[in-house]
Every structure is written in C-alpha cells, then in structure tokens.
Amino acid sequence: MGSRRSKLLEDVKQHLCTCAEGLKLTPEMEAFLEMPMRELYVSLPVHMDDGSIKVFRGFRVQYNEALGPTKGGVRFHPEDTIETTRALAALMTWKCALHKLPLGGAKGGVICNPKELSHREIERLSRAYIRGIYQIIGPDRDIPAPDVYTNPQVMAWMMDEYSKLAGKNVFGAITGKPTILGGSAGRYDATARGGLYTVREAAKKLGINLKTARVAVHGFGNVGYHAAYLAKKMFGCKVVAVSDSKGAIFSADGLDPEDVSGHKHSTGSVLNYPGAKTLTNEELLELDVEILIPASLENVITKENAGKVKARILAEMANGPTTIEGEAILNSKGVHIIPDILCNGGGVIVSYFEMVQNYSGMQWGEEEIRSRLERKMKEAYHSVYNFASKNNVTMRQAAYTLAVGRVVEAMQLRGWI
C-alpha cells in the first residue's frame, strides 16, 4: 500500500513536469515547486477509554503559500503516510490557484483507524492534533478542514481547542464546521455539487443528454453519495452502480441513492441492497456508462484497467484517482477527463466562502452559496477546456499549466524566485 501512496506523489510531480516547458520554468524553479515549503511531524499521546495511553503519529504539510495562507483537509486514516500528505498538499496548492482563490495548499493527517476509536477517543485525538500543530496554523497562516474520516463534529472540536489555546473565539481557524459555529451553508455537498457543474458543462461539449445518461460512482462516502443523489436530482441521470470498500452494487433500472444510503447506514455496506446485483469495485469501473465518477481514494484507474473503461466522461471527484499510465490509455480512447484539481474544487471553494463569512461576521444563504459556487466552477471548467483546445493539450495539462503559472507569477512578484 505504501508504494501506492508514493505513486500518487510521483504522478503529481510528473504532472508538474509536463507544464514546465510551456511555462519556461528553470530547473531551480521546478525543483522548488516539487517540494513542500514546510512539514511538521507530531506525536500525539491520547488517553484511551480503558485508561491506557496510546501515541499516534501525525503530520501537517504546508506546500506553498505564495498566493495566501495555506488551506487543506485533515485525514484520519490507518494507511496515511507523509508521501500521501505531500501529494495532497500539492494538489490543494494547484487546486486553489486554478480556481483563483487567495490561498495556498496544505494537508494534514493522523495515522489511526477511526472505526476502532470511541466518540470520546476521537475527540481527544482531534484536540491533541491541534495542540501539536497550533504554532503553524491560524486564520492568516493555515486553515485545516475535513477530509477522509473527519467531519463537522471533528472540526468543531478542533476549532474549540484552537480557541482555548488562543484565549478567544477564533471561528476562522478551521472550516467545515457546523453552521451554528460559523460553518457555511452548502458545505456538506459542495465537492459533489461543484463537480457536477463541470459534468454538465462537459456534457454540453460532448452532446450527451444527461436525462438519459447512466452514472457509476466508485466510493459511496460523503462525496460519492451526494454525487449520486445530485446527479439524479439535478439532471435526471440514471445512477446504475455505486460502491464502498466492501464491494459494488448494480441495477440496470437505476438505484435510489437515498434508499441505498439508508441501507448502508443500517447494514454497514451497500452490499445486499434489495434488487441489485453484486459487483466488485473493479467491475464497476468497467461498466457501460456515460459518466464514471471516482469518489474514493487515489490510484483506482491504472494501466491494468483503463483499457476496459467505457465511460465517455471521467469526473475525478477523488484526489488522484487516475495514474499517469492509466490516463494515457484513457486519452487514447477519447475519454473526456475532468481532472481532480478542477472537478473536486467545490469543497475548498465553499471553505473559502466560509472563511470570508467568518471574517465579515455575515452568513450567506444556501442559494447564494450555490450561485457563487456554480459561477466559479463554470469559469474554471471553460478556462481549462479553452486552453486545452487552443494549445492541443489534455485537460489535465491545461489545468496544471494555468494553476502552476499563477503560483509562479505570485512567487516572482514577491521576489522569491
């Protein structure tokens, strides 16, 4: 699994290399951009419910702050590594730049299995993590947010711990909070909703009727569930397959995402959903659908399975779901890839909106949030699509070139390089 995680970092660096020549980056500039500006390792002693003390390992990586304070999620995962965290911090840097947010990129993680921890143990771990990284975070430095296996409750604990250490309420130190504690309306489905706005624009370009389009979603967590639910609700798509870590289900007649979600919550998995056929996660990726949405973890589409992908649109709502080798095969087949730093930018965009609301002391309504999100996603999609078409490059290379170019310009103007 470690090699799989380091593969993500290698691919992110390779994507940077592909746009280096077009941006006329010197070897020194490229080397600077390939490494994080700052990393912090922390050991977190936590009192467990049985009276013992367990020490957890955590990280915070601040990749680049040329465009503003860094921003990025915190992942609680048993297979988290510093290589994964570096790669995700880099992706967040390019994502913020691509969507023209005044933010840099960061990422954090703790090696743990939240499924084996009690509610109170997760709270103690969340607070310990903030104590560990307190000196390098804050509203004007680095703003953590939710990621895999963290949620608004975890963010509430983290914000409270930061406020205790600061000696005052600092709601803007963390985003992804419950709305009553300064969180933003619309944050819960922002990543999926933002991604679907780009799917809609891509469907227009490709002449795909979304009302008859079939959709498969790989990963039925928060993002995957909302992607399935909104694809059906917003566009009338037929969601024919979804999966979780235990397997996948398929129905040619279409699934009801809300009902499947209820089944998963009551049984622990999407498997054995009444009337649906059981598939493997690999088989889901190879289904005959118009739209495939990877919404799980990295490196699920590889050189081994990319040739079997039949979808016309690949909407990357996960970070790094497609390897470089897999992408080359998809491009040769004419699959329209909406790259992760474009497709899943909705989460950080609405997190930025949350920061703005915290700074101003105002709260925007959900319709205003959605309207602002839609404008940002449409603008980013068309800027990438137009650049790719004009310069005869892939959508990913276009996205990286635009994003890295903005970071480089900021670094030059600040006199860093």
From TrEMBL:
Substrate binds at K71, K95, S351. The record marks D147 as: Important for catalysis. Residues 184-415 form the Glutamate/phenylalanine/leucine/valine/L-tryptophan dehydrogenase C-terminal domain. GO terms for biological process: L-glutamate catabolic process. One of its GO terms (molecular function) is nucleotide binding. NAD(+) binds at T191, N222. Keywords: NAD, Nucleotide-binding, Oxidoreductase. The keyword Oxidoreductase applies. InterPro entries: Aminoacid_DH-like_N_sf, Glu/Leu/Phe/Val/Trp_DH, Glu/Leu/Phe/Val/Trp_DH_C, Glu/Leu/Phe/Val/Trp_DH_dimer, Glu/Leu/Phe/Val_DH_AS, Glu_DH, NAD(P)-bd_dom_sf, NAD_bind_Glu_DH. The active site is at K107. The keyword Oxidoreductase applies. It comes from the Archaea. Homohexamer. Belongs to the Glu/Leu/Phe/Val dehydrogenases family. PANTHER family: GLUTAMATE DEHYDROGENASE, GLUTAMATE DEHYDROGENASE 1, MITOCHONDRIAL. This is Glutamate dehydrogenase. It comes from Methanosarcina thermophila.
